[in-house]
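Students often ask why we bother encoding 3D structure as a string. The short answer is that it lets us treat folding as translation between two languages. Here is a chain of 112 residues written in the first language.
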Amino acid sequence: MDSDLQRIKGVVGEVGLERDGERFNAFNVTISIVVNARRTLNFNQGEQLINEFRKELLGKAVEITVIVVPCPVCGKGFNTEQGMRQHVRMVHEKKAKPKGAKRARKKGSRKK
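And here it is in the second language, the structure alphabet:
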């Protein structure tokens, strides 16, 4: 690979998953990468970049591990840390508050 092309970085824009139409237990994963070049790439350089991706990725065996973020209180698993924090806030912190506790009102707001 050209030394200038080695410095190109990219950002994954989207990851998609769909069931393979021919094989029930197989899935197709699509990954969209936005390439950030320091300069404009011409067509030949872009083609060289794609060929390098193909060489490095096509036909390679990969192993994907499912990410599970467990709740520290009940152990229920979540796909993201944000999902786990939301669960803790909505389920466990809600239960910890006494039922008779009232919310603090903002200054100037009165019940009519």
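Translate back mentally: The mean pLDDT is 77. Keep this in mind for the problem set.
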